[in-house]
Amino acid sequence: MSAEAPKSDVPSRRRGRPRLDFRRLGRAALLGPNARDRLSDAISHVAEAHRAHHPDADLAVLHKAYVLAESSHRGQFRKSGEPYITHPLAVTLILAELGAETTTLTASLLHDTVEDTDVTLEQVRAEFGEEVCYLVDGVTKLEKVDYGAAAEPETFRKMLVATGSDVRVMSIKLADRLHNMRTLGVMRPEKQARIARVTRDVLIPLAERLGVQALKTELEDLVFAILHPDEYERTRALVADNPDACDALDAIAERVRAVLREAGIPSEVLIRPRHFVSVHRIRLKRGELRGTDFGRLLVLVAEDADCYAVLGELHTCFTPLISEFKDFIAAPKFNLYQSLHTAVAGPEGAVAEVLIRTHQMHKVAEAGVIALGNPYAATEGTETSGAADTQQADGERADPTRPGWLSRLLAWQESAPDPDTFWTSLQADLAEDREITVFRTDGGALGLPEAASCVDAAYAQYGELAHACIGARVNGRLVTLSTQLGDGDTVQLLLAQDAASGPSSDWLDHARTPAARIAITKWLAEHPEGAKPATSAPRAPAAVFAGRRTAANAVTDLPHAPVRLAGCCTPVPPDAVTGFPVRGGTVTVHRAECPAVARMRALGRAPVGVRWGDASECRVTLVVESFGRTRLLADLTEVIAMADAAIVSAVVEPPSEQRVRHTYTLQLPDAAGLTVLMRAMRDVAGVYDVSRA
Length: 693
Description:
- By secondary structure, the chain is of the alpha+beta class.
- About 40% of the residues lie in helices and about 15% in strands.
- Strands 1, 2, 3, 4, 5 and 6 form a 6-stranded mixed beta sheet that branches. It has a 5-stranded mixed beta sheet with strand order 8-7-11-9-10, covered by helices on one side.
């Protein structure tokens, strides 16, 4: 989409099809559509690459698109002096080699026509249909004359919204940026750096999230060379000085082939050299590199079951490094990636990393969503409009390329009308390159970035209603909103009954998702009086104490020894209990699961056997969690009185985020009534948890 020259100072280490001579293609393009014998020469490489993935593809539409692109761009040149048509040809070839289908290639040939020539979207629609028109419009930049400094962020916003309906829009953009990065050599250094930073912060994370590793790795190397030239040169020299580095992997690869042949597992074992950024990261992690660190082994098999069979053979015949094992087949990454990762030690102790996957997994690992072809095609084989939604019966998109992160991005960008807020939030969102899944108590699931907190889960589930959130239960336990969530956690968000309540400014310290941060910031701006800083020294809890009673109905194995029930766990019948003698000969009785028991045993203290006597009277400490409201304390004490329980002590902590915590030590006439009392206290309006201390 820009007129960068095709010169690049960054050598490519990618193996396979040699780099094409775009100067020759440019000369062929200049001959124009009337030179029919030269037309096929100009796009023959595209046709060859396309037919390799789609043998039955109809190339007529590609020829037609090339004619329009060449004639409309005729007379335009890149800054290096080459005909401009070489750029859309190169972008189309990149996509063709990754297996993109015909519609995507047609749109990539035309992707700059509406932006840089007199061709209109109406012409594209009339000639090539709604689907191609939608893709071309999706990658067309907004005019700087109309948007000024906001043109770039608003262009990305437009592109991402279009990607939400058809992911092929972003596929074309990524290939477009790759060719522009390859040909950035004649630009001013400051412009090279600016483009490289945007590529690093936005395009590379998008390539990662869409699973297009083939584009991502080359973009990483190109950015590395521009933004970190010294480290890049050091890494390049390290690779150049070790041309035989992968020989160490050859011996291990040959032994792996022999093991798999003997096991009767059809497979292909390849050596995959690392790209420069990967070598740089390994060097920083391990220091001095060994030969096996410059590449990895790739084992390709036919079926999923064969992957695990290969893993079993490798772990049987080699010494595995268990800490390096990862199963991305059973639990695929959020970007469609599937593979088994392991590492084994060779004969002389050299460690080789091994990737095990099927041929189809490998295709998806390299090309990501591009390998899916056209996900919007009807089941009969006809293609539908990229702008129109393919619907399931429940109204949701039947779209395998609409992952959770993209849905969340499209949701929060609507709340960020300011271009600066959108741009900074987008970069922050894309920087979170790992995802977790947490489950709601109603059976639904939430996809969140790694290290997300309960605050993020609240806004992901409830949107602006999350302003009233006061706490959460994670895996059944009551936690604060700042608690970080882990993959597979079950979370239940607790909302206050007062709909007018709002978030604290402290929530911004725990929010990781743009949706949460934008919503909180917006509410705080609209309610400045509601943003009250937390007090540094909270008031001491108000406490009420009644006369203490020391009676205990526990009998110990030490005759005549005084018995005291521990206040830390307040055991009651029929709890499993144990005792420990303390100063003065008194035996303190604890519940068996009390942490104090483990500490006593660790100190070498001998336990004393304890059993419950015939008396049913007991003392217990209950903790009540509730929403703040008037008459709450009166209602709770009324319930306690109706159970004939005596209040030994009561502690009411100051309200925090509309939550109130009460601690009651009660003397019950009968331990059997404890369960009934706790159930009655839970039924008090505003109370959401009652538990033993």
